[in-house]
Each structure stands twice: as C-alpha cells, then as structure tokens.
Write a structure and sequence with these properties.
4-stranded antiparallel β-sheet; 6-stranded antiparallel β-sheet
C-alpha cells in the first residue's frame, strides 16, 4: 500500500511581477517586484515605496542594469524583506491589478558610480549614470515603454 502525504502551508504566496525597460540605445533595466497576496495596508491596492520613509505592500524590489552588450553593469536591492534600502530618491508605485506603473519612477542606485532609471512611464524614461562627484549623465532613453509581466 502506498500512502502519500501532501502538506499545505497556511502562509499566502506572494504576488510578483517582472519589469523590463529597453532603451533606444540597447541598455536594459530589469526589475523584480514581490508583494504579499494579503495586503497589510487595506486602504490601498497599490504597491509602493517613496524614499526610505513610505513603504506600502512591498516586500522586495530588485533592479539590474545591463549595457547594450547584455552585460550586467550593476544590481540593486532597493527593497528587501519589506525594508527600503539606501536610496532616498526611490520612487516606485505599482498597481498589481492593472499591472501598471503609476506616476513618477526612480529606481536603481543613488551613490557615486551608480545607475538609475527615472521618468514618467508611458511618456519618457531615461537611464542615468552618476559619476564619482554625483553628476548625472543620461546614457539611454525611450518613450516610456516598459514590459510588465506577472508571475514569472
């Protein structure tokens, strides 16, 4: 006689989404977002972070910057374990129902020699590099288009 035991966890499985931005010059920004299925903040269905202070319904936001040859230039853990990390300029507002970015976007690094993507989705998004003195240099751009897919 064969007996099979299957265990189920009572813990909710987090929702997730992957974002891909492709610049006109070939650079890419890839971001992975996780959020709880059961939001702790019931007043909104938005997943967001603003700077280091405001964090709602967001568990993880990781960002990877690739050059036009597909080589990884930098990786950032903007949010990990429900805590925003090291970027006062961070702005990310995601609607998991419509799978869209809402409002201004600013993700990636914020220090010397870092890269970051900022702008208005569906209007204009720019990839910048900060030099060692904190000067911003735009290295790629697109018309605000971004591919967003849930549950990769």
């Amino acid at each position: 006689m064969l007996i099979s035991l299957v265990g189920f966890s009572a813990q909710a499985i987090a929702g997730e989404a992957n974002l891909l931005w492709q610049g006109d010059g070939g650079y890419q920004v890839r971001a992975h977002v996780t959020y709880p299925d059961e939001f702790t903040d019931k007043s909104t269905k938005i997943v967001q972070v603003t700077g280091l202070q405001t964090l709602q319904n967001l568990t993880e936001l990781t960002v990877q910057i690739l050059n036009d040859q597909g080589q990884v230039l930098a990786s950032y853990d903007n949010v990990g374990n429900g805590q925003a990390k090291g970027n006062n300029f961070l702005q990310f507002r995601f609607d998991p129902i419509s799978k869209t970015i809402k409002g201004w976007l600013d993700i990636g690094g914020a220090g010397a020699n870092d890269y970051f993507l900022k702008g208005q989705p569906d209007a204009s998004l720019d990839l910048f590099h900060l030099d060692e003195y904190g000067n911003e240099f735009k290295i790629d751009h697109n018309n605000g288009a971004m591919d967003i897919r849930a549950g990769f």
